[in-house]
Amino acid sequence: MGQDRRSEVPTSLAGAVSEEIGAFLAPVDAELERRYPGDPGTRQPVHTVYVPADVFAAGTVRSWGDRALAALDEHAPDAASFAAVLGLSGDLAEAVHARVRVKLEREPVEDLRIDFEDGYGPRPDAEEDEAAARAARLVAQAYATGTAAPWTGIRMKCLEAPVRDRGIRTLDVFLTGLTEAGGLPDGLLLTLPKVTYPQQVTAMVRLLEAFEQARGLPPGRIGFEIQIETGQAVLAADGTATVARLIQASEGRATGLHYGTFDYSAALGVSAAHQAPDHPVADHAKAVMQVAAAGTGVRVSDGSTNVLPVGPTEQVHEAWRLHYRLTRRALARAFYQGWDMHPGHLPTRYAAVFAFYREGFRQAADRLARYVARTGGDVLDEPATAKALGGYLLRGLHCGALDDAEVAAATGLTRADLEGFVAPRRPPQGPGTGNGSGAGSGVDRVGDQPVAR
To answer: What strands, in cross-sheet order, belong to the sheet with 224-228?
Structure first.
């Protein structure tokens, strides 16, 4: 019992060599663990909805859902008409249309951002103070009554000199209001826009540290997203990738990198008619973001289209086809989140997301089941791919594209088992191998959220 099998085979190196190598690489091991903990494996919203602070109201989430349902009823009242617009077919069209309606009725907005920046603009200080305090009251009430989006927060003004003091004060008023109304909700998300230098991210960290200390909150309680909408945020003057340094400067508080389609495109001289999420300058910026964030646990989000589905049915259908195509394109490129600017975007956001996961469900489930059972098949999957398959199915469950029962029937795996597959720093394992407890991320990160209700 307990015999070391390594002693049964001849070797040439002394044990001290392994110890020396271990000691030499210990700092690297610690650095890897600190900088690259892996994706947390928790739920990520499929979109962020931006609403100007002066427009935000207690019924905003429900209003967006009702307006989206009204658009669906007017312009695609049944599965066949919706399928004709988007190019869906057969059973997929029926399933997607039904699930879109249920989503719009139960959870129309996954992530709501109350905007104090471009969507709100410059206002007298007293007016913005009141708007920030009002936003805090309404958010607190929404969480208390169970009517809030799973994630909610604000986009403050940036930390550039002309609006810095205003941005800091709005953040303070909002967080103070939430704290005094019962505490910061678990789904709180903050967005820092127009970042150009890592020092601005460091300044945001210091602001949040000061607030936590003033309110007796645990260090690191408040995280934030970094908006990438300037050329300098992607490429620094010395040719290095600034976005990687932004993540480092966040000291573990960064929860996401959000691409700003129009500010970034305009900054690079793209004319208004060609500013879009699929423009080459957008693809380059997002590719750099994606590589910089890989393994860090920081999620990436695509931007938006400004083509709104309004007007006569033909015009709405054209906007829907564009939005659907852009969303599917982003999903295929591993951008699982984007921005939506109008309630009419919700039907095609969810249609694209649901179709993406339902189209690939059977193949992904079969491959993962074969990997777990070690029965082989026509595809030889590596452990990393098995982890990706588990993540794909888990994301489908999180958003409502897939159901627990059908995933379990197809794979033999529970949701907890899938969480074990995608947990960082753990190799993919199946049930019965000691990693099926559904421990989630395995890393206590700022901004982690529970799986879907």
So the answer is: 299-301, 254-259, 224-228, 188-192, 151-155, 111-115, 47-52, 338-340
Nearest to 128 by CA among 139, 114, 142: 114
Residues of the chain with pLDDT under 70: 1-7, 381, 424-453
Contact call for residues 407 and 417 (beta carbons, < 8 A): no
- Report yes or no: 273 and 207 within 8 Å, Cβ to Cβ: no
DSSP secondary structure string, 234-281? HB-TTSSBHHHHHHHHTTT-EEEEEE-HHHHHHHTT--GGG-STTSHH
Q: How far apart are the first and last CA of the chain?
A: 47
Q: What is the pLDDT of residue 41?
A: 85
3-state secondary structure of 148: coil
Cα angle, residue 240 at apex, residues 238 and 243 outer, rounded to 5°: 125
Helix and strand totals (H; E) in the chain: 16, 8
Whether 65 and 346 have beta carbons less than 8 Å apart is answered as: yes
The CATH fold assigned to 47-354 is TIM Barrel (3.20.20)
Whole-number pLDDT of residue 453: 30
pLDDT of residue 434: 31
Alpha carbon separation from 334 to 49, 187, 338 (Å, rounded): 20, 23, 11
Beta strand 299-301 pairing with 254-259: parallel
Percent of the chain with pLDDT over 70: 91
As given in the structure block, the two tokens for residue 119 are 């969507």
Q: Which helix (H) or strand (E) holds 453?
A: none
Residue range(s) of every CATH 3.20.20.60 domain in the chain: 47-354
Q: Which parts of 56-117 fold into alpha helices (H)? A: 60-75, 79-86, 90-106
